[in-house]
Design brief:
This protein has about 450 residues and is an alpha/beta fold. About 25% of the residues lie in helices and about 30% in strands. It is built from nine helices and 23 strands. Bound molecules: S-adenosylmethionine.
Length: about 450
Amino acid sequence: MKKGQEIEIKIEKMKYPNVGIGTFEGEQVRIKGALTGQTVKARISKKRSSKIEARPLEVIERSERESASFCEHFGSCGGCMLQTLDYEGQLAIKREMVKHLFEEAGLEIKIDKIIGSPEIFEYRNKMEYSFGDEFKDGPLTLGMHKKGHHHDVVNVPHCHLVDEDYRTLLNGILAYATEKKLIKYNKRSNEGFLRHLVVRKSKGTGEIMVALSATTGPQDAEGNSFDGSAFLKRIQELPLKGTLKSVLYVKNDGLGDVVAGDICILFGDDFITEKLYDLTFKITLYSFFQTNTHGAEILYQTAMNLIDDLSDKVCFDLFSGTGTIGQIMAQKASQVIGIEWVQDAVDAAKENAALNRLTNCKFICGDVFEKLQSVTEQPDVIVVDPPRNGMGEKTTTAIAGYNIPSIVYVSCNPSTLLEDLIVFRKLGYETDEITLVDMFPWTGGVECVTQLRKI
Ligand SMILES: C[S@@+](CC[C@H](N)C(=O)[O-])C[C@H]1O[C@@H](n2cnc3c(N)ncnc32)[C@H](O)[C@@H]1O
């Protein structure tokens, strides 16, 4: 086997994140995106003594679990990867992937339970779309990155992960931008106007936020500056089922391909309101909030089930976002301290606690590791819910340093959970079971919930 060689290979198993593994000439080959049971044609892209990787070229034979995808964007859109499996098949594959990841690392942890999402279609409460083109200098597109291509963007007018209002907004705003000849932003030259479109819609209240991320440069080739009123008018004319609550223009002149910059309110407020159980949460553009609201209720309940008794307890909600987990605990605990580094999210968490009449919560803005150094309270309960890159050794060690009997870890990335669990193990904390909660049907993502116990 050598680099560049084309091979035909049967996928025997999968490992998180979405890597199919098969055997060719007695050696294991890893192919991103290939599913267990498929036979694929692939080209060897990396050959080292420790690892052989190949890029998939074509599915020659589908697995027995697969059928035709119902989504017309499947294949071109990079958003979903498990479109050809029924929901049971998706859950089975996600469990298999995480199980293999931990097995390969030599950690014997029971990973048998996976809880499905209460909704499998139109479950998302947020989408971040990009403006661009499907091929170089092609017509303006607004949607998702093309599968396997970071620069190309495909329209997704019929995406099933979101409800009709998202599709109406997507199609309406693309039509408006095309008609007005608004220019897309060019990442290479850092010139142009249109960058991203963020849509948030609350499941609990139906409130909608629309945020246009664009530069402060001219909106078209004639040099006209952004006409916010015309943009807003077009949005207000769209036949939306929910309530338009917030229209924002994010002045984004930065070099990074992310939504960032000062916010100019074109209409309404700078937040929408979501409901979780009987709690109310204000969500601003930059605050993290779980993208599957009803799935989040199950996720948080799964985490809460691991804590025996909250009454009279001091609880730390680390990486607290808008303070969701903290406020669920605060209904029973004596005190909750949340730490989160996005100021917007901390402000929202404080307002949310007041809105929910919870007077026993304190939310601190800053890096979890740094802020823990100055927090004087001793926790009885710690729940951590870090971002995709995990906590890292320093923060994990600081948390283990509290020496409490158990810690609950909620993770959206099994790979970094694994790394942190290895650190925890060295520090005397063990886990014997991980429960998976699927918050992202049709895609390869999955949440993990586990309890670490001090040995
Ligand atoms: C997966 S989210 C969890 C949020 C919250 N627990 C929830 O369920 O809505 C992770 C959060 O950690 C925050 N974050 C990431 N790194 C951080 C750090 N080093 N210190 C403090 N917060 C951080 C992010 O801004 C994000 O809000």
